[in-house]
Amino acid sequence: MELQNPKLRQRGRASVDFLTQLGKASMQVGANVNADMDAAGVTAQTVPDDFNAAYDFVDSKMAGSKSFAVKKLMGDWHGRSHGVVAAQAFEEIESDLAPAMKTASDGPARLTLNPQLQAPAYWDGVHFHRTAGGWDGHPYMGYIHGEIIHKKMVDKLFPGGIFKQRKTVAAMAPRSSYDRILDMGCSSGHFTTALAQTYPGAKITGVDLSPRMLEHAHRTANANNWDWDLYECAAEDTGFDDNSFDLVTSYIVLHEVPEEAIRAIFAEAFRVLEPGGDMLMSDVTRYADLDNLSRLNADRGARSGGEPHWRSSASADLAQLAREAGFENAVAEGKYPHVVQGRKPA
User: Fold this and answer.
1) C-alpha angle with apex 287: 312 to 158, nearest 5 degrees?
2) pLDDT of residue 124
3) Around Cβ 260, how many Cβ atoms within 10 Å?
4) Is 214 helix (H, G, I), strand (E, B) or coil?
5) 334: alpha, beta or left, given left = phi > 0 and alpha = psi -120 to 50?
6) Which of 80-89, 151-160, 253-262 is the least confident region?
7) Which of 154, 184, 228, 281 fits as disulfide partner to 221, beta carbons 3.0 to 4.6 Å?
């Protein structure tokens, strides 16, 4: 069986397809919710600035809306179930994948894990995306997220496709070529793949806190004959030498950490970049770019999706944090993804 984007068996495929359709149905229910909100006087102008007051206001106004209650239930059930369903679908084909898994363990890529690593407080014990057991809760969680959840669920719910979006962001760096790229929070290697395709001459290094995600990034690199170097470490404390890279990147990672960690990540990116090197990072929509109602909806989605640091991160001015880290010409643009760029002075 093909290692990447595998063919699921009937039961697993049906379950995964059901969750995908549920996600699409939730969007349709959302249109009914919007109509109920308009009728109840819930608008961008009437929702309070304070989050607690905003939640109280909207929940009380929408107490009689069946659509509002159904959408909340759908979001909660999807958040709790997607990881379990994807894991079950994987386990149905695990034996079929064994030869490809074994082959992908060998190749030019290098993986360095650190069993003694002390995880940062923002990471330790947190089940991001409400994944049962967290990113390392299953021996093949990297594969489950990389090949089933993202390719067979998430990608179908993103306008234009999330993988095309990754390639678009990768190509936003100001140069046409780079020699040494660091991908911070590389996870199972999706954005790292976009970087390898966009800058084929670059030596690519990826870091992440999840061994299981790194293991699948390692498989992906070997399957494509890419000589990535992958390390288990925090993005804010990589241990690499000063001036080691000419491009440092991340894709939709910063919302997984609080603002103080973003500051540390930017400082580390600045340190490991060579003079004249570029930073290119993207994240979720800034709360400053949303009206009060849209901001509350995003915050509610983060709650149901298991994102404990979303509010702190989405409230941060990334361009300002980049400037404070020492980057020049720092700019942050776009809603989703919101992309911040800067250059280390030559």
Assistant:
1) 100
2) 86
3) 12
4) helix
5) left
6) 151-160
7) 228
Per the structure block, which two tokens stand in for 113? 């894990």
Burial category of 31 from C-beta neighbours within 10 Å (exposed 0-12, middle 13-18, buried 19 and up): exposed
pLDDT confidence band for 2 (50 / 70 / 90): confident
Q: How far is 312 from 97, CA to CA, in rounded Å?
A: 40
The CA distance from 198 to 185, in Å, is 18
200's tokens: 């084929």
Residue closest to 145 by CA, chosen among 161, 128, 169: 128
* Whole-model pTM over 0.85: yes
| Location of structure tokens 């989605």 | 301
* Alpha-carbon distance values, 239 to 127, 169, 209, 280, 296 (Å): 26, 26, 14, 20, 38
- Find tokens 């340190």 and name the residue: 271
Tokens of 24: 């699409």
The pLDDT confidence band at residue 187, using thresholds 50, 70 and 90, is very high
| 333, containing H or E segment | strand 328-333
Cα 272 from Cα 248, distance rounded (Å): 8
